[in-house]
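Researcher: Next entry in the queue.
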Amino acid sequence: MAPAVLFVGPPGGSGEPADGSGGKPFPTIAEAVRAAPVGALLRIAAGTYAESLVLDKAVVLAGAGAARTRLVGPAGTGAPVVRVRGAARVELRDLALEDAPGGVDVDGGAVRMERVVIRGVAGWAVVARDAEVAFLDGQVLDVQGGTKGVAVGIDGGSLEMRRSVLRRSGRRGIEIRRGRGLLDAVEVTDSSLAAVQVLDGAEVTIEGGRFERIGGAALYAGAAKLVVKRAWVSKAEYGALGFRGAELELRDSEFSDTRVASVGLVRAHGLIDHCVLARGGSDAAVAITNASGTVRLLANRIVQPGPLGVHVTHATVIATDNSITGASLDREGDMGDGIYALDADLSLERNDLRANAGSGITTTRSRVRLMRNRFTSNGRAGLVLLDRSSASANHNRFEGNRGPGVQVGELSAATLLGNRFSGNDAYDVDPICGGGGSVDVRGGNAFLGPAQPRRSCE
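Model: Structure for this entry, 458 residues:
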């Protein structure tokens, strides 16, 4: 059945009795809503409408375009422009919500917004509780100057946002608690704390999109699950941060120019797969602390990560087919390692740790299993074991490092089988004299080039 169609505006009207027909449109949207049967389509003419609407039945509000049909908050009211109540299913199309205390407030039910612009609201753009929200091909602009509040807040229910832009919108651009979310090709810039926060059991997937110039962690998950695919994140404190048992799954994305770390996991766990992490900050490309489960690094490219490529503390990490290059020394001339691990368990296979200013890997009180990795042209050693660390290294290449290929001290132990050593400075294998470490050089190791195969201590 075709829906009933009612016409609204232009504002002011003709003064004649209105019936919602094309010739006698309602002068206000609120009058049209009251007269509309369930499921009606309200066609709103171009103009500016100062109204605060309460929608408690299914209805469609269709404007003449966001640049032409504007809904603004009435003077002296603290209410949002649109409130959706009960089980109503509401659609808003081709209009703008501007200059009001809030944009859309949804309590239960569902709202679908297409080509809607929400601009200059004092409180929030969209807030919803246990509701289904869809926001397609729209814009959220200048919500509290990007310094306060939440632009889009979802508590329970769901959010589907596609091909939309948030600029200078809320201290947090999008916040989802307890609910589900899909953000497809969404752009969030210039929020002072976070672009997206996923909290308290929420599950959110981000596909594509750009997240740039964020004051804190651009993408944050706390006690929630966040999946990110093919996104571009830049100029934030952290590109992505997981906390309080969160699970992060980052795939095919790029994180660059972060002030602390590209990815941080604090009491969290997850997967980083086929990502590019470039130009990290004061900590590392990936910083892992007290992981709540295994962290897997698969086929990532880490370039110029800052003082460390991967910084691991109290965690289990499995790394396969990654490239880590260009870690730099800190101000004291220290660090610069491709991987630095403290009280950790590392399993590395087919990784390339190259041209880092420090060592390829430095471990303290950690266990390391190395298989078919390359440690080349690092500024110090290929592998350094300290403070009772242990390593099993099979079929790796230690070549052209400015220190030893493998250096063992402080009661640490290494077992070497089938490795290739070439062009390292001074010694290929160095059990630091007086350090109490031990090295078991088993069969199949090849020692080539000017370095001595193994240091002898008097």
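Model: Residues 1-122 form one domain.
Researcher: Noted, moving on.
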